[in-house]
């Protein structure tokens, strides 16, 4: 079973080829907003002429543009290759990587950069791997209270550190290669965006209504 994993939901852009649950090849770069330019060349380098059986893509939450780039690529490749496409969430893959890096951790709080100065927060348990609540978009002070005494992992940790410099944390971004660590139920999401917040721009009708 050969699975192509696509990761573009955050500032990182990564691609991994999984063969029977192991990483056969992978690339990971922090590109900021350059996902559209880097993704296809990275896929070509990682996949080569390997026949792919399925495509797995990060659906978010995260960057509006990054999520769309990844899902569009996954769907297009799935259609062209005639293979199934499914999704996973960014907080889940960050949590799975954190537990793999430190097996003694029982819980982690994934805190990722959101929009409008907020962060996405979701806590996970290690054994069995499970989300302890749905993710939420919170102001940093509210997020700090929500994480409790869990180890904080994710790129949004820096916003909490501004409030609590001694907070136990690990700065991290999602990596496609870590998708191999996710239980099957966490890699069976529909390949549709999980944005976490509504669009920033208001429609003309909404602006007119608010102006009244």
Note down, in words, how this protein is organized.
α1 runs parallel beside α2. The chain has 212 residues and is an alpha/beta fold. It has six helices and eleven strands. The radius of gyration is 18 Å and the shape is globular. The strands form two sheets. Strands 6, 7, 8, 9, 10 and 11 form a six-stranded mixed beta sheet that branches. Strands 3-2-1-4-5 form a five-stranded mixed beta sheet. It has helices spanning 35-47, 64-81, 90-101, 140-147, 157-161, 204-211, and strands at residues 2-7, 12-19, 22-30, 54-58, 85-88, 107-113, 119-125, 130-131, 136-138, 151-153, 169-170. A hairpin with a 4-residue loop joins β7 (119-125) and β8 (130-131). The protein is 30% helix and 26% strand.
Concise account of the structure shown:
The chain is built from six helices and eleven strands. It is of the alpha/beta class.
The rounded Rg comes to 18 Å
Query: How would you describe the shape?
Result: globular
> How many strands, which pairing sense, and closed or not: the largest β-sheet?
6 strands, mixed
β-strand percent reads: 25-35%
Give the helices and strands as they follow along the chain. EEEHEHEHEEEEHEHEH
Number of helices: 6
Structural class: alpha/beta
- First and last CA, distance: 58 Å
Stretches where pLDDT is under 50 for at least 5 consecutive residues are: 198-212
Q: What is the number of beta strands? A: 11
What is the helix fraction of residues, given as a range? 25-40%
* Chain-averaged pLDDT: 92
């Amino acid at each position: 079973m050969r699975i192509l994993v696509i990761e573009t939901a955050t500032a990182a852009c990564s691609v991994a080829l999984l063969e029977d649950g192991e990483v056969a090849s992978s690339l990971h770069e922090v590109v900021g907003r350059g996902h559209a330019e880097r993704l296809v060349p990275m896929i070509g380098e990682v996949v080569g002429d390997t026949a792919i059986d399925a495509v797995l893509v990060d659906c978010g939450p995260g960057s509006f543009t990054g999520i769309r780039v990844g899902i569009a690529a996954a769907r297009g490749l799935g259609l062209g290759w005639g293979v199934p496409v499914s999704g996973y969430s960014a907080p889940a893959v960050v949590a799975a990587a954190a537990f793999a890096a430190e097996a003694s951790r029982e819980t982690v709080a994934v805190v990722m950069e959101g929009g409008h100065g907020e962060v996405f927060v979701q806590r996970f348990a290690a054994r069995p791997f499970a989300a302890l609540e749905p993710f939420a978009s919170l102001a940093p002070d509210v997020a700090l209270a929500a994480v409790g005494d869990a180890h904080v992992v994710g790129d949004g940790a820096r916003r909490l550190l501004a409030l609590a410099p001694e907070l136990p944390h690990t700065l991290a971004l999602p990596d496609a290669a870590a998708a191999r660590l996710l239980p099957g139920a966490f890699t069976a999401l529909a390949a549709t965006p999980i944005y976490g917040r509504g669009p920033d721009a208001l429609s003309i009708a909404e602006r007119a209504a608010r102006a009244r």
